[in-house]
């Protein structure tokens, strides 16, 4: 089929897995969706098509607005959205980054095998849950003062190293080495800092999790070896972001931009797309505040890593170093960064907005950590707590197809409200334990229902599209063993 009509939109098939909504009306560029026909049907079930079409109206957007194969409705800008905007003549949009700035994923290796863990799942999940702050407003690993929060905002993982929560090796295996060079805490409000001071090292709620996994399949032996992965290995995945601090930063700047640049935003179709003109005072302030919130999120995930290492030490009676609990990689999927990409045959500096989308740079890019530059950047795609997740590596086609981006996970197909009507928490928990030996523990049973495996797209389908378009290539698949949530 070469043309599809969904929700009043005519989508034209450019080639396999690439669909385009042509530019018309107020659109500055076309909109593109990277999806199979089955995924396209799911993406069309909510307002994603409206939102990705609205995103094409952002001033300075280049080539096309993109929706990744896991895309679904968000606030203003769709989750799974990518927008590359001219860094000189365009704009910077907090809504196209999202409220949870630097929500992201990290993966920690171990030298344990599944046999080392088998029979101790319940002990481990209970210990992790007891020692990991979860839920809304339940504190963090560190509960501190404004002065310390300010240092975290400015220094990122440098602060964590000095305080004994991280190693230099952790920094070398984190995007941007865990410290944004543009971060400036002066542009973060007192309200945001106050929200963050008691949340450093906390999961929060919703779809955030800490999950012990085992490597179930290796697809590329050479790359897996470079990443330190092998079959049956135990690994730990952590998914969370900048908590209330990042939410407040986004809220502050959406409001400020809407007030200070009302005329600039007058023609945008959604309030949450509010954008600051590139080079303006408020754009520079937001970029500094966003960088600071990014640092906060990296420290947040690092303190959860520190706590996880300590739990494993107590449960297994060995030091975390002896168990090889090293960071494989940490990457953001709610972020805007200045990057240089080729547009119409010429290199151009762009604000690449990724909201629920993961950077997927191939070999050679200087942004990829030295350890992985010859094999490509690790890409971490979490699935659901009942299916599995993927480790991929940045593909050669990502730069030309998607500004070096791919999906960030499975992507929802069901609202939280609908999920709680369809699923019972105890049923989900019991079924996963009895039939798949997956142990789940959460602060609130409703969260388990909201995050039931059936509310997500098929992660295998999402990865297949990414592989077929050469956005990212599968390296390994992991399956859950223990999962804790807020």
UniProtKB/TrEMBL annotation:
Domain of life of the native organism: Archaea
Keyword Nucleotide-binding: yes
EC assignment: 6.5.1.-
Binding, Mn(2+) 1: 100, 208
Ligand binding (Mn(2+) 2): 239, 333
Subunit annotation: Monomer.
Purpose: Essential for tRNA splicing and maturation. Acts by directly joining spliced tRNA halves to mature-sized tRNAs. Joins RNA with 2',3'-cyclic-phosphate or 3'-phosphate ends to RNA with 5'-hydroxy ends.
Name the record gives this protein: tRNA-splicing ligase RtcB
Biological source species: Halonotius pteroides
Origin organism lineage: Archaea, Methanobacteriati, Methanobacteriota, Stenosarchaea group, Halobacteria
């Amino acid at each position: 089929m070469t043309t599809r009509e969904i929700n009043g939109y005519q989508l034209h098939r450019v080639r396999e897995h690439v669909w385009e909504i042509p530019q018309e009306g107020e659109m500055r560029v076309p909109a593109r969706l990277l999806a199979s026909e089955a995924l396209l049907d799911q993406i069309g079930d909510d307002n994603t098509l409206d939102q990705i079409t609205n995103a094409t109206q952002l001033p300075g957007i280049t080539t096309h607005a993109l929706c990744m194969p896991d895309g679904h409705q968000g606030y203003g800008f769709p989750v799974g959205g990518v927008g590359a905007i001219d860094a000189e003549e365009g704009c910077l949009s907090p809504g196209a980054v999202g409220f949870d700035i630097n929500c992201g994923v990290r993966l920690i290796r171990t030298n344990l095998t599944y046999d080392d863990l088998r029979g101790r799942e319940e002990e481990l999940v209970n210990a992790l849950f007891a020692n990991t702050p979860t839920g809304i407003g339940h504190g963090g690993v560190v509960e501190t003062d404004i002065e310390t929060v300010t240092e975290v905002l400015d220094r990122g993982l440098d602060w964590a190293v000095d305080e004994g929560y991280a190693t230099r090796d952790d920094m070398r295996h984190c995007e941007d080495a865990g410290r944004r060079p543009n971060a400036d805490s002066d542009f973060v409000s007192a309200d945001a800092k106050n929200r963050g001071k008691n949340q450093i090292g906390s999961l929060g709620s919703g779809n955030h999790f800490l999950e012990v996994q085992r490597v179930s399949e290796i697809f590329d032996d050479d790359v897996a070896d470079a990443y330190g992965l092998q079959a049956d290995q135990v690994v730990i995945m952590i998914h969370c972001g900048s908590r209330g601090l990042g939410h407040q930063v986004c809220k502050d700047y959406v409001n400020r931009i809407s007030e200070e640049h009302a005329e600039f935003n007058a023609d945008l179709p959604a309030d949450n797309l509010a954008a600051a003109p590139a080079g303006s005072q408020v754009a520079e302030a937001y970029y500094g505040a966003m960088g600071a919130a990014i640092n906060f999120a990296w420290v947040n995930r690092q303190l959860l890593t520190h706590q996880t290492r300590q739990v494993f030490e107590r449960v297994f009676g060995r030091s975390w170093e002896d168990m090889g609990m090293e960071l494989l990689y940490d990457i953001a999927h709610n972020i805007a960064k200045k990057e240089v990409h080729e547009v119409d045959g010429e290199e151009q500096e762009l604000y690449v907005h990724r909201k629920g989308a993961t950077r997927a740079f191939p070999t050679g890019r200087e942004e990829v950590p030295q350890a992985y530059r010859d094999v490509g950047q690790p890409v971490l795609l979490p699935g659901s707590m009942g299916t599995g997740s993927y480790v991929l590596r940045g593909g050669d086609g990502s730069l030309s197809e998607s500004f070096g981006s791919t999906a960030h996970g499975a992507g929802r197909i069901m609202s939280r409200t609908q999920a709680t009507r369809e699923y019972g928490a105890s049923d989900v928990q019991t079924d996963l334990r009895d039939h798949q030996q997956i142990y789940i523990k959460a602060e609130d049973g409703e969260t388990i229902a909201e995050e039931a495996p059936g509310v997500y797209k098929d992660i295998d389908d999402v990865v297949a599209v990414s592989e077929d378009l050469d956005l990212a290539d599968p390296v390994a698949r992991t399956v859950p063993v223990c999962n804790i949530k807020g």
